[in-house]
Structure formats: structure tokens, C-alpha cells
Amino acid sequence: MNVSFENKFIWWAAPRCASRQTATLIGPFKFWIYYPDETLRHEGLLYNQFDIPDNPNAVNKQPFTHYAAIPDNVNPNDFDLIINVRNPYDWMVSCWHAEFNDLHSNPDAQNVSFRDFILNRPNTWYDNLEDVTDLQCVKYGIIPKYLIRFENLVESVLSIPFIQDKKDHVVVERWIESVQNNGYRNSYRPEVKDKNYKHWYTQELADIVYEHKKHYFEFFGYDKDSWK
């Protein structure tokens, strides 16, 4: 879990939901990182990139964790909860791309079809404890204050007050430009990189994903038919 005692927020950075991009703006606001198997913590702030915007190292260098649980010594009611979320249909396709189509990070990736991935492959990013932020909200009895939606990333992030206060800063302007020019798909296989996530769905596959993530759809307000 990522928590800022100074700015009073908890940030759940679910993987494959633009968490790394979000970290480049959240990172400078001094949060601590808690891990699931220890009570030790270390400071997440390496430097304040808002003070040194020309520093070439001031991008994608902020440490954070995807883990969403809250340690006993942190009362979640004392903080605003920020969560990265993503349409589950799109999220599933992204996990498939990352595991089997991202030739840059996994040059030996097998060419597994999306259907086989859904039907036969375990999906650790999609299912493990750190990702089910909707169920974590139920567990702790808290409602997120801000949702950073993957499909509306810039507007979602800029709605957070302590970031909104710096919306005219050159670092924020550069960040917006980097989001708009994101070339992460360039490392995917040619047959998949230019296709929208909806391309991969049939009614059968959409039904499987919806039943598996029904609570997530409802909790975060995603449409059952948004795969069409």
C-alpha cells in the first residue's frame, strides 16, 4: 500500500491500470510504501520533480507498490482513498498482451490466443489479492474518494486537488503530453498492437469476463455491454 501522511491519501496502484504513469505525478507527494509480508517501510520520495523539472531522471523513477491491503497501524478513515481502475474487458486484454504479446519485455512470449488465455490460463495480474480493489474497499468499509480511470487518465488525475493545484506546472504539462503520445503498444506483435480491446471479444468471452468481475463492474460503474 502507498500512503501519504503529509497529504492524507492512500493510493492503490493496480497493475495494468496506468499505475506507472500515475506514479510520475503522485510520487513527489511523499508517500510511504507498505508490503504484504513485513511491517517495515521506506520513503517513496526520491526527489521533488516539481522543483527540478529539467532533471532528466525525474520521470518514472518513483517507487511504489501494487499491493492494496492496509496495515493495522493505518486508519483508512483518516485518509482520502485514490484507486487506479480500468474497464475489466480492456484490463483482461491488456493482461493477455503483457504476458503473451509484449516482445520487448518477454521476447520468448508464446503466441497464445485471447480465447485460450481466458479459458485455460491463470491470470495472476487479474486475480491476485493486490488487484481486487473493489473487494478491498468492502473489506475495509471505505469508499474511494478519487478514481483514476485508465480510459480517462488525464482528467481523472487532474481532478485530485493536490495535483490540480499544480496543473499549470511544466512537469504536469510534460506528463499530459507523454500520456497522449504513449507508444507502449509498439512492442506488441504486429497482429495485435493496432486493435482496440473490443476486437477480441465474442458474447461467450464477454460473459465469462463479466461473471468473473461482476462486482468490479458494478462497484466502479462499468457497463456490462461495454465490450460491444
The CATH topology is given as Rossmann fold
Estimated structural class: alpha/beta
Order of helices and strands: EEHEEEHHHHEHHHHH
- How many strand segments? 6
Distance between the termini: 34 Å
- At CATH level 2, the architecture is 3-Layer(aba) Sandwich
What is the radius of gyration computed over CA atoms, rounded to a whole number of angstroms? 18 Å
Residues in helix, %: 25-40%
Explain what you see.
The structure is a single chain. The protein contains ten helices and six strands, in the order E-E-H-E-E-E-H-H-H-H-E-H-H-H-H-H. The relative contact order is 0.16. The model is unreliable at 43-48 and 56-60 (pLDDT under 50). The chain is 34% helix and 10% strand. It has a six-stranded mixed β-sheet. The longest helix is centred in the middle third of the chain and has 13 residues, at 88-100. The chain has one domain (2-220): 3-Layer(aba) Sandwich (Rossmann fold), CATH 3.40.50. The chain is α/β, with parallel strands linked by helices and 228 residues long.
Question: Secondary-structure map with pairings?
Answer:
Blueprint: E1 2-4, E2 9-12, H1 19-26, E3 32-34, E4 41-43, E5 80-85, H2 88-100, H3 114-120, H4 124-127, H5 133-140, E6 146-149, H6 153-158, H7 161-164, H8 170-180, H9 203-212, H10 214-220
Parallel strand pairs: 2-5, 5-6
Antiparallel strand pairs: 1-2, 1-3, 3-4
What does this entry show, briefly?
This protein is an alpha/beta fold and 228 residues long.
